[in-house]
Amino acid sequence: MEYKFTEDNFEAEVLQAATPVLVDFYADWCNPCRMMGPVVEKIAEEYEGRVKVGKCNIDENMTLAARYRISSIPAFVIFKNGSPEATFVGAMSAAELKEKVEQALR
């Protein structure tokens, strides 16, 4: 299941989450972001119960994008215990994204 993260729910859904959280910072006009959509959905299904996965639209949540210094999209940030643990930018294969998630979970 994919979540939609906003400035209103980010504190509760991401920073206070009991599990690690993968946040996909994206924009609707971004082609690489759209390409990553199915990849992120696959990761959400595969890691259900172990990692919370969701998207954050940077155009609608500019404060969050600025706070986490998102300057290129798609950008993926893994949060653990309320802190950004790993950040990676750009379109990638499902295998690459899975490997990065696995590294952050160690």
Automatic annotation (TrEMBL):
PROSITE patterns in alphabetical order: THIOREDOXIN_2 (PS51352)
Listed SUPFAM superfamilies: Thioredoxin-like
Disulfide bond recorded as keyword: yes
Source organism, top-level taxon: Bacteria
UniProt keyword list: Disulfide bond, Electron transport, Redox-active center, Transport
Any one GO biological process: cell redox homeostasis
Active-site residues (renumbered): C30 (nucleophile), C33 (nucleophile)
GO CC terms, sorted: cytosol
MF annotations from Gene Ontology: protein-disulfide reductase activity
One Pfam family, short name: Thioredoxin
Domain Thioredoxin: 1-106
Site (Contributes to redox potential value): N31, P32
Family listed: Belongs to the thioredoxin family.
NCBIfam families per UniProt: thioredoxin (TIGR01068)
Protein name according to UniProt: Thioredoxin
Gene, per the UniProt record: trxA
